[in-house]
Design brief:
With 254 residues, the protein is α/β, with parallel strands linked by helices. It is 43% helix and 15% strand. An 8-stranded parallel β-barrel has the order 1-2-3-4-5-6-7-8, surrounded by 6 helices. α9 links the parallel β6 and β7. α7 packs parallel to α9 and α10 packs parallel to α11. The protein starts with 5 loop residues before the first strand and ends with a helix.
């Protein structure tokens, strides 16, 4: 099955509203209209400005997180319906920084996934092991637990069209290190197998992205692997030229 490549830029806590709008306009001009699916995920405060800059473009707007409730007494949180109202097409869930720094668990990721899908958003669910876990040869067990935890509530056939996974080895995020293409492909194949256990043949249509120091000079090699369907890009997504080159690498798979 041919899966449409998907490149998403996670801007983390970078870019003011004005800066986000400027970068979104640059990206719109450089990558709008490509065959690959392209999205950017600015900070919450910059979502309206980025949305306005992208109106009429094929570049989609994603958020970096959401709460599992639609509303309530949750100071500092943002719900999935609120993101839809701002023009978001999707949301990143369970990023390792959220898990490590803010106490997210497989259970909370599962609840957020249910909320995001219920609000009509696409969800990118992040999974990955730490360096200590890989050195202890526990990477498969850790990632398998995270995947199964995210899907504990089950998926409908309609859900599978609006969910992607992102394998991000924690030791490669923001470090300049990157999993070898063989390491990345092996884990992506494992994730694909786990998805088949849950949703059968529909798993072949679910995209699995790679994240962890993806840059223009390694994107093509990573994306040439059979089970790597795109990239969740961190630092390189903050520069239009770099992000555009990564998107260009994804075109080769279309």
């Amino acid at each position: 099955m041919t899966r449409r490549p998907f490149i998403c830029g996670n801007w983390k806590m970078f870019k003011t509203s004005a800066e986000a709008a400027a970068l979104a306009r640059e990206l719109r001009a450089q990558v709008g209209g490509v065959a690959a699916q392209v999205a950017i995920a600015p900070p919450f405060t910059a979502l309206p400005a980025a949305h306005n800059a992208l109106v009429g473009s094929s570049v989609e707007l994603f958020a970096q997180n959401c709460h599992w409730e639609a509303s309530g007494a949750y100071t500092g949180e943002v719900s999935a319906p609120m993101l839809r109202e701002l023009g978001c097409a999707g949301v990143i869930l369970g990023h390792s920084e959220r898990r490590q720094l803010f106490g997210e668990t497989d259970a909370t990721v599962q609840k957020k996934l249910k909320a995001a899908l219920g609000a009509g958003l696409t969800a990118i669910v992040c999974v990955g092991e730490t360096l200590a876990e890989r050195e202890a040869q526990r990477e498969t067990a850790v990632v398998s637990t995270q995947v199964r935890g995210a899907l504990a509530g089950g998926l409908t056939s309609a859900d599978t069209a609006r969910i992607a996974f992102a394998y991000e080895p924690v030791w490669a995020i923001g470090t300049g290190k990157v999993a070898t293409p063989a390491q990345a492909q092996a884990m992506h194949a494992t994730i694909r197998g786990l998805l088949r256990e849950r949703v059968g043949g529909a798993a072949d249509g679910i995209r699995i992205l790679y994240g962890g120091s993806v840059k223009p000079d390694n994107a093509a090699t990573l994306l040439s692997q059979p089970d790597i369907d795109g990239a969740l890009v961190g630092g390189a997504s903050l520069q239009a030229a770099d992000f555009s080159r990564i998107v260009a690498a994804a075109r080769e798979r279309v």
